[in-house]
Amino acid sequence: MQIKSIIFDLDGLLINSEIVPFEIYKELLAQHQHNFTLENYAQNYSGRSSILNMENPPKKNDSENSKSVFLLY
């Protein structure tokens, strides 16, 4: 069987893959007593690379220790 086409889903239209990094960040931060919400992720981290997200740690109003948690990983 010959492959005739390939579909790339780069904007989440076909598959919502954004939930995967959110769950990873949420689980990682929960280990350090930080409540990372889907709203926070959607407003500040969704659609960005993991490298940019690590360079942009949670805002001060989230929790003081979360910045160091993101910078550790």
Determine the N-to-C terminus distance. 43 Å
Q: Biggest β-sheet, characterized?
A: none
Helix-strand makeup class? mainly alpha
Number of beta-strand segments: 0
Q: Count of helical segments?
A: 4
Helix fraction bin:
40-55%
Question: In one word, what is the shape?
Answer: elongated
Uncertain spans: 63-69
- Using only C-alpha atoms, the radius of gyration works out to 15 Å
Strand residues, percent: under 5%
Overall pLDDT: 75
Spell out the helices and strands N to C.
HHHH
Task: Describe the fold and architecture.
The chain is mainly alpha-helical. Helices cover 44% and strands 0% of the residues. The chain is elongated and about 50 Å long.
List the helices and strands and how they pair.
Elements lengths: L18 H12 L7 H7 L5 H6 L10 H7 L1
